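User: Sequence in, structure out. Go.
Assistant: Echoing your sequence, followed by the structure tokens.
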Amino acid sequence: MNALRLFGFFAVVLVPVIFRVPARGDQSVTLAWNPDTETNISNYNLYYGGASGVYTNSANVGNATNCTVAGLQSAATYYFAVTADNTSGLESPPSNEISYTVPTVVVSTPPGLPVLATMAASSVTAASATLNGLVNPDGAATTACFEYGTSANYGTDTAGMDLGTGANSLAVNSSIGGLLPGTAYHFHLVATNAVGKTAGADATFATPAIAPSVITQSAGGITSSNATFIGAVDPDGASTTACFEYGTSATYGATTPVMNLGAGTSALAVNSPVGGLLPGTTYHFHLVAASAAGTAAGTDATFATPAAAPAPVIQLFPPSVITKPASGIASSHATLNGSVDPNGVSTTAYFEYGLSTSYGAATPIISLGAGTNALAASAVINSLLARTTYHFHLVASSAAGKTAGADAAFTTPNRHGNH
């Protein structure tokens, strides 16, 4: 429909319900109305205020056809009307207006349990939301918080709120972050005073799913007929698949097999080897990922295959060696790291280390095979001295020769944190 119809039949039936009758006169009333007969109604809005036609308060009540309004003042008159929103974002004209005068309360009662209501969450994004509610301290010093989680067992609390000793309903809210996209959450409001503890009804909201985050990174292992495409995908909480598209232009034309990446919330490294490429040719490629929340494509990247060698030439190259920073450094041990490309010749490697670039100690020999790609190499060394600088480098040998990586150094920390 282009606009919501007028609610000529829209009868709001007022059912006064005394939430509690404290001496301080805070009361509530329940309003009910007939649902609209249109099929694309998304929610109802309740408006009210202290003067006819002037509505200073409003609440989106979702698809409910009744609502309890708390915090009404004794002997005050309130005016109410309801509208409906459709799925196109259009709001209907207001229903017929009704009024309600809150009875005068003169009963004197001692403080009681906090009176509260869990209200709908608002400002919901893929990673955050605002939790809302109402609390009447009922005359006793009261604190409140929201409990929330992915089930009605909750598991996480918001910071406590001090609400004083009043006798009127107070609107409370807490903003929460670090939520997972595409996830249903439960929450409720809890308030405590000297009389006891009250927990509100469970309410739910769902964070929206977002399309995967995609990065096209590079091509590796490039030969005249083969390459490996490399990229990263964050599923952002929705079940995700991915593939690389590639070809001799940015219109691509070929795809790698589809990879199932699950529904995690952190970036995953992905790669796909391809063959059958033409020598001496420039190729375009990019990474594409899809989930129920949408499809995302990484930026275009290019690489060129080398020309085919005119004739096979067997030439042996010594290993290529890189000394990398040490890790896992403690007062008495550390892990030495590096990488070796055997360059097609059976290769072994080891680390030399010591208190100077003369080293003096070596780790056990590592066999690295005869591949043509860089291989990670590491070794754990023990019995180190605390607060001492050590030098090390990676050394690799094959029939083609011996290669020593650059010198690197690290310093062990204090033992047990002593200075």
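User: And one key feature?
Assistant: The CA atoms of residues 341 and 373 lie 5 Å apart.
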